[in-house]
Automatic annotation (TrEMBL):
Natural source organism: Eleutherodactylus coqui
Database matches in Pfam families: Tetraspanin
SUPFAM superfamilies listed in its UniProt record: Tetraspanin (SSF48652)
Family to which this protein belongs: Belongs to the tetraspanin (TM4SF) family.
InterPro entries: Tetraspanin/Peripherin, Tetraspanin_animals, Tetraspanin_EC2_sf
Keyword Hydrolase: no
Name listed for the protein in its UniProt record: Tetraspanin
Cell compartment(s), UniProt: Membrane
């Protein structure tokens, strides 16, 4: 019986260590992706919120939590420490619940979020040509996503500051040249006509499969981690409780 329990202990310990290793790799990847997105989409962050976007920062923070939590799990598994293992499983469960709540909230408010992005984008357009950082960011977004304006290129016709009447920024041009954005209605075939909010939505939609796969993989890893931890704690209790009972009886 003892040999059987020892085999179970070793199998669960090995399984938990494999899960923790995958969890650790996921954390490192999330940190790298979060930092990369912050760098790559810095212009989008400025345009959409006029501040650094919270999503890449949140991704980086969650990645760091997973990184350090994995370290705690490794220590708990190697030392067969029941207390640390319970803490590890508890934090994993809490993190899993938070991820579900955040995911459901983001899905429920996706339409409202799109409207907010559109309104913020329109607000930022009025500062084009006035604030250097916003001007550079808007140009960057329009070139990156091959778009013009928030809803479409005609949004620029209602902007009094920064550009001439019935004109759009040169960054709206398919081939950027001096004054290529003037007389936009006559030259609209030479311009990106779709709005940037729609183009950003399409870009996000194209990455849904990857985001979904990563989310499902991370969720399953957490469930396995919680399950293995609880089973390991149970076997450790069965292993050590009889020993303590025998010592007390000997006294």
């Amino acid at each position: 019986m003892r040999a059987e329990s020892q085999d179970k202990l070793l199998c669960l310990k090995a399984g938990l260590l494999c899960v923790i290793l995958f969890f650790w790799v996921s954390g490192v990847m999330m940190i790298c992706v979060g930092i990369s997105v912050q760098i790559k989409l810095s212009d989008v962050s400025i345009v959409v919120a006029e501040t650094s976007s919270g999503a890449p920062v949140a991704l980086t923070v969650v990645g760091m939590i997973i990184f350090f939590l994995s370290g705690l799990g490794f220590v708990a598994a190697f030392k067969e420490d029941q207390v640390l293992m319970k803490i590890f499983a508890g934090i994993m469960l809490l993190l899993f619940i938070i991820e579900i709540i955040v995911g459901l909230s983001a899905y429920s408010y996706r339409n409202k979020l799109q409207r907010n992005v559109l309104n913020r984008f329109l607000k930022v357009l009025s500062k084009y040509g006035v604030e250097k950082q916003i001007t550079r960011a808007v140009d960057g977004v329009q070139q990156e996503f091959q778009c013009c304006g928030a809803g479409n290129f005609t949004d620029w016709f209602n902007i009094s500051a920064g550009i001439s009447q019935n004109s759009v920024p040169n960054s709206c041009c398919r081939i950027v040249q001096p004054q290529c954005g003037e007389d936009a209605m006559e030259r609209r075939e030479q311009l990106y006509q779709e709005g940037c909010v729609l183009k950003m939505k399409i870009w996000i939609s194209e990455h849904y499969d990857v985001i979904g796969a990563v989310g499902i993989g991370l969720g399953l890893t957490q469930i396995l981690g919680i399950l293995f931890s609880c089973l390991l704690v149970k076997i450790l209790q069965e292993k050590y409780v009889p020993v303590r009972g025998a010592k007390e009886a000997a006294r």
